[in-house]
């Protein structure tokens, strides 16, 4: 059984209490060996010019809750009569069952954003297992960070989201061609997840330097070898992704609790991104 999200939070809190924590001493191991088994999908470098990239994600943040009329909304199913009685006996309406359904919707929002080719085109990345996993971790962090802001209730729901993520990640690792020593790989990816969570949260602290988040994103998302030296050619994409992350953080904080818990929100679409 994978460790509970509460353990992740405990790990995070212990590091965040130390305000002098070095972002680059955290366990952010590379996963290039897994990525090597996949044929990378090269980004469409001509899709977005550097000038356009530099203008992106500068608009004022806003709530990303889905409007009531949106076909993407998820609504709790309602049943009447014998079916309602039967489902109640089967604990369909229990708090745990409802939380699991909510967590599934939230995780689908994450997957919907990170599995679209456009996110790799916009940020000029090849889509490999490594980059897909990195995007998955970043968007999981965004959701768990927002849920944590709602206190124990949000942390508990985040636990279910985290467990769904782990089940999905195991499937992704298997599809990437890793069938032997799967448990070992999952433990390694777990350490990467913890390291990324701490690095990103530390970079968002009020006392963090302006470029801490940019550096954490470069090392944990863009750099294949975990190098702390930023590649100048990747700078426009790294800066754009940093703005995207900061904006999504604020947008999620402006999104009401009901929309977050029910999964009735959507990350900023990148198919036709606004400035």
UniProtKB/TrEMBL annotation:
Residues 123-267 form the Ubiquinol-cytochrome c chaperone domain. Signal peptide: none annotated. It comes from the Eukaryota. One of its GO terms (biological process) is mitochondrial respiratory chain complex III assembly. InterPro entries: Ubiq_cyt_c_chap, Ubiqinol_cyt_c_chaperone_CPB3. GO terms for cellular component: mitochondrion. Belongs to the CBP3 family. This is Ubiquinol-cytochrome c chaperone domain-containing protein.
């Amino acid at each position: 059984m994978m460790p509970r999200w509460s353990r992740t939070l405990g790990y995070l809190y212990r590091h965040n209490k130390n305000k002098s924590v070095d972002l680059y001493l955290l366990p952010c191991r590379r996963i290039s060996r897994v990525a090597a088994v996949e044929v990378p999908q090269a980004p469409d470098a001509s899709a977005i010019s550097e000038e356009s990239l530099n203008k992106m994600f500068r608009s004022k943040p806003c709530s990303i809750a889905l409007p009531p009329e949106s076909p993407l909304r998820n609504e709790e199913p309602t049943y009447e009569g014998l079916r309602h009685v039967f489902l109640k006996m089967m604990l369909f309406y229990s708090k745990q069952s409802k939380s699991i359904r909510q967590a599934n919707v939230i995780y689908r929002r994450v997957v919907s954003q990170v599995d679209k080719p456009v996110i790799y085109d916009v940020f000029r990345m090849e889509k490999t297992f490594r980059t897909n996993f990195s995007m998955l971790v970043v968007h999981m962090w965004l959701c768990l960070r927002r849920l944590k802001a709602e206190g124990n209730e949000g942390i508990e729901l985040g636990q279910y989201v985290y467990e769904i993520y782990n089940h999905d990640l195991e499937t992704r690792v298997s599809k990437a061609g890793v069938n032997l020593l799967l448990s070992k790989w999952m433990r390694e990816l777990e350490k990467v997840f913890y390291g990324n969570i701490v690095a990103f949260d530390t970079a968002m602290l009020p006392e963090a330097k302006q470029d801490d988040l940019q550096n954490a994103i470069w090392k944990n998302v863009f750099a294949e070898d975990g190098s702390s030296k930023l590649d100048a050619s990747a700078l426009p994409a790294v800066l754009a992704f940093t703005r995207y992350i900061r904006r999504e953080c604020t947008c999620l904080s402006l999104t009401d609790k009901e929309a977050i818990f029910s999964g009735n929100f959507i990350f900023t679409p990148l198919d036709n991104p606004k400035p």
